Amino acid sequence: MKFLSKLAQIFAKGLQLVGVFAPVLTQVLPQSAGTVQTVSKDLTEVFSAVVDAEQVGVALSLKGPDKLKAAIPAVSDIILQSAALANHKIANPDLYNQGVQKVADGAADIVNSLHTDGIEVTNKQA
Predict the structure, then answer these.
(1) Could you list the pLDDT tens digit for every one of the 126 residues in the chain?
(2) Long-range contacts of the stretch 35-38 (C-beta < 8 A, 24+)
(3) What are the helix (H) ranges across the chain?
(4) Which of 31, 75, 86, 90 fits a 20 to 30 Å CA distance from 120?
(5) Which 8-state DSSP code applies to residue 122?
(6) Which domain holds residue 51?
């Protein structure tokens, strides 16, 4: 079972996820620790946006391509706010949007590649 499919089952049962994408990279490297932490934070936010889109998709009974479309605005916001795009303007919005879609789609593939044993849940009513 794919990771996002497992999440869909959890959402359908009304359970809450606990720390699905807590920052796992806390490696300290001389002269680049801030960069490592920033990249880890940005990736974690992208993965979380994909999971959020999955949750919305489950609630609205959306198919995969529509879940991807739901993730794209949040992923775009994360990318636009990233240090990588600081002080840059988008010259070709169509190309930018294609890239964002690829990032969101790639993030969904990465999340789906994960083993479902790492998912922690808790009952919302508890």
Answers:
(1) 666 666 666 655 655 544 444 444 344 445 554 544 555 688 889 998 998 898 888 889 999 999 999 999 999 999 999 888 888 899 999 999 999 999 999 999 998 888 877 666 666 654
(2) 38/82, 38/83
(3) 3-12, 33-60, 64-80, 93-112
(4) 75
(5) E
(6) 3-123
